[in-house]
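Problem 12. The chain below contains 227 residues. Write out its predicted structure in token notation.
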Amino acid sequence: MPISHELKYCKPAVVSDALKTLAVYGNTARVLAGGTDLVVKIKEDIETPMIVINIKEIEEFKKIQLKGDMLHIGANVTFTDLINSEIVKTKLHLIWEASKTVASVGIRNRATIVGNICSAVPSLDSGPALLNYEAIVCLKSSKGERNIPIGEWFTGPKKTARNPDELVTEIIVPVPKEKNAVYYGKLGRYSGEDLAQAGIGIIGFANKQFRISFCAVGPLPKRSEKL
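Solution.
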């Protein structure tokens, strides 16, 4: 299906250029990283942006870096990158497990975890893992920077706390110091590449404390604090 309306397109190589464009176009702009959701929406006229900003060429967004006890995941890091990362597998195993359940190999090769949380569909597989690890979403605009705890990020189905002139640059995930074990379980309608009909992520710590989060069982992915 072709794109049926005219739009502008830019591919900035540095963050500052992307922010300048967002400042001008605001809510009429859409950011493209993997494009697995956005391109479909544009083709189906669900989204009709004036401009698409492709951030794939911004090198600093492609990094997975461990700094102290914080893992920094850039905006261009795909689910395949996460699966192939030994740091993610050993330090944040729940993200690694959840990443392997996302759609198909082809989608995982393109789709980014930042794009996943920006799409904010209730069934997103990355939601329970990021909630359990108490991740932080980092944003920049031409006005400055701010950080949002992942528990405050999702504001409704397909809605987030991001302002129209802001760009998500990375997700910062604290690495647990305590010994732990994890599990991500996903209920689908059939075996294979399906959206979660229900998803649960669990971290169990050696001190018998647990963190449990869900996706696809309500309008938002949620951590069950009381449970």
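Discussion. DSSP finds eight helices and 14 strands in the chain. Students who got a different answer should revisit the alignment rule from Section 12.3.
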